Amino acid sequence: MAQKVALKSHRRNVHEHEYFVEEIHYDPTKHHHIIRKKQPGVEKTHHHHRGGGSSYFKKSHKKTASVQALTDVQLWVLDRSVFQMITQRLGMERHSQIINFLSKVSIFANLTEDRISKIADVMDQDYYDGGHYILRQGEKGDAFFVINSGQVKVTQQIEGEKEAREIRILNQGDFFGERALLGDEVRTANIIAQAPGVEVLTLDRESFTKLIGDLDTLRKDYGDKERVATLVREPPSPVKIVDDFREEFANVTLKNVKRLATLGVGGFGRVELVCVNGDKSKTYALKALKKKHIVDTRQQEHIFAERNIMMETSTDWIVKLYKTFRDQKFVYMLLEVCLGGELWTTLRDRGHFDDYTARFYVACVLEGLEYLHRKNIVYRDLKPENCLLANSGYLKLVDFGFAKKLASGRKTWTFCGTPEYVSPEIILNKGHDQAADYWALGIYICELMLGRPPFQASDPMKTYTLILKGVDALEIPNRRIGKTATALVKKLCRDNPGERLGSGSGGVNDIRKHRWFMGFDWEGLRTKTLKPPILPKVNNPADVTNFDNYPPDNDVPPDEFSGWDEGF
Questions:
Q1: The domain 3-85: what is its CATH number?
Q2: Which of 383, 410, 451, 564 could be 352's S-S partner, Cβ–Cβ 3.0 to 4.6 Å?
Q3: Helices 435-450 & 483-492, crossing angle to 10 degrees?
Q4: Per-residue model confidence (pLDDT) at position 205
Q5: What is the DSSP string of 162-194?
Q6: Would you say 464 and 419 are in contact if contact means Cβ atoms under 8 Å apart?
Q7: DSSP symbols for 365-423
Q8: Structural contact between residues 155 and 165, judged by C-beta atoms closer than 8 angstroms
């Protein structure tokens, strides 16, 4: 519940609450310079109401400005977590309402819930007062309308008649303007809002074509409506563990694992190069995560999600998880090792990649994303650091701590990811799905070719501000990233998730068909006959020269006995 407080005339930083001005003025200042004055009420930004203390992110970050009262001020104070919970719940409810409504509209009857969800994302909502002409006969049209509430009157001017003839009344769930989606046809009737007013959902021709294709797709009876209905209504299935390649590790315990070298370190723990039963001809990566650190940072759910998702995957484009262990201090993941190192290290050493090199690594990632998306998994952590080079030079995705399995056609509201790679809908807490990965793919292309992320600032808040300005504000194309690559980036990084390349009816194939990939050997990539642009130098299964050097680990974490890791 919000509480009313009086803020006296002194400077303070606000971190854990949202502040809504009730009366008097105040100034947000930075470095003693007035940024702007605010009037009583709630600040309106990006069509979402936010208070003076609004934060876009889940975790605590340093505020980029202070708020100084010029006089005594009365504020309504709302705890940040409560504010985020309310906005998340409202967003989820609104999205579900639109999906449920559209699923009952006859023209969408043959579409899956996933496709209807994407249509809901790109539909605009408009309101017209009674008597307003929504469409006029003879005008060119490029939009399709569905009545969400209210009524409209359809009239038509008949040759030889003075007054327009009333044809019919359309009600909630009825639609009009669909012929405009077929081509540049003029409107054949007038559509007039009836009192007191009408609310409509609109879909423009470009979005319709991307998401659905054509009207024949909607009108076609697939003869399989029962299957579609089952697909929409059935709950998500339990995790299916793909274990054919894991059988040889069934009897392996931690005692059988011998550490050979360190591949990486972090606050979470370490990644070690290991062998099993002393056989150094086969090596693996052992990821050891500190249980106490996981509990302190409340990452238990993410760790289990990572384990479950990786246990469900079996593809050449994702690092394989063979087995998990746990003891009093750590939980462990025994993983496929990629001795070519992180793609980020290669990018750092070379500065940037040319078109040919970048195209290969983007194609590898695209194969991995397509595999995940088919399983309704959103990755949410694409970046060069999470792309490992196998000995063959081919790329594999790793680190699924932010990945999440979604129910078909649904979204998630968790704020997570690397600041430079998060999409606008994540920043604005609008809910997101697999389309967030397509945004990240566009950023990934830029980083590979520019040698740095396109949106980069001194702190996350400034980075988010740059992201919300959009890709059109970037100085591309330039000497490193050409016009064709830029065109692909701009199609992937559309502000509206439903308009991004890959989100349409053609899915990932729409990305493969882009001019930037013209002539690329996709079949050679899948069969591994395509020569990689860079072949890592790996002398033996224990060669770690493609990784940075790390000091020995002298930090012994405390025991953790809460039992959260039971079943890991």
A1: 2.60.120.10
A2: 451
A3: 150
A4: 78
A5: SSPEEEEEE-TT-EE-GGGGTSSPBP-SEEEEP
A6: yes
A7: HHHHHHHHHHTTEE----SGGGEEE-TTS-EEE---TT-EE--TT--B----S-GGG--
A8: yes
Check whether 334 is labelled as a binding-site residue: no
CATH 3.30.200.20 domain span(s) along the chain: 248-336
Average pLDDT, integer, range 21-49: 42
- Catalytic residues, by residue number, are 381
> Is 327 in a helix, a strand, or coil?
coil
In the chain, where does the domain assigned CATH 1.10.510.10 lie?
Answer: 343-527
pTM of the model: 0.71
What mean pLDDT, rounded, does the chain reach? 82
Pairwise CA distance, residues 416 & 202, whole Å: 31
**Amino acid, single-letter form, for residue 147:** I
Neighbours of 81 (CB within 10 A): 11
Pair type for strands 3-7 and 395-397: unpaired
Of 496, 488, 508, 505, the C-alpha closest to 432 is: 496
State whether the Cα torsion 176-101-431-212 is positive or negative: negative
Which amino acid, 457? A
Confirm or deny that 267 is annotated as ligand binding. Answer: yes
Portions of the chain given CATH number 2.60.120.10: 3-85, 111-233
pLDDT at 285: 98
The reply, when asked if residue 544 is annotated as ligand binding, is no
Q: Say what the pLDDT of residue 243 is.
A: 56
CATH number for domain 111-233, candidates 3.50.50.60, 2.60.120.10, 2.60.40.3080, 3.30.70.980 = 2.60.120.10
Give the CATH number of domain 343-527.
Answer: 1.10.510.10
Residue 331's closest CA among 291, 284, 301, 292? 291
- Per the structure block, which two tokens stand in for 327? 């003891």
**Of 314 and 123, which is predicted with more confidence?**
314
Q: In the numeric block, which tokens belong to residue 459?
A: 């702190």
Instruction: Name the residue among 494, 427, 498, 525 with its Cα closest to residue 102.
Output: 498
Q: Please name every residue paired with 28 in a beta bridge, in sequence order, or none if there are none.
A: 67
Give the model's pLDDT for residue 32. 47
- For residue 407, the model assigns a pLDDT of 87
Say which CATH architecture domain 248-336 belongs to: 2-Layer Sandwich (3.30)
Name the one residue in this structure whose structure tokens are 């007062």: 129
110-127 per-position pLDDT tens digit: 788 878 888 888 888 888
- 401 annotated among ligand-binding-site residues: no
CA atoms of 533 and 523, how far apart (whole Å): 16
Tell me whether residue 126 is exposed, middle or buried, using C-beta atoms within 10 angstroms of its C-beta: 0 to 12, 13 to 18, 19 or more: middle
Q: How many CB atoms lie within 10 A of CB 344?
A: 15
Give the angle 148-150-154 at the CA atoms, nearest 5°: 100
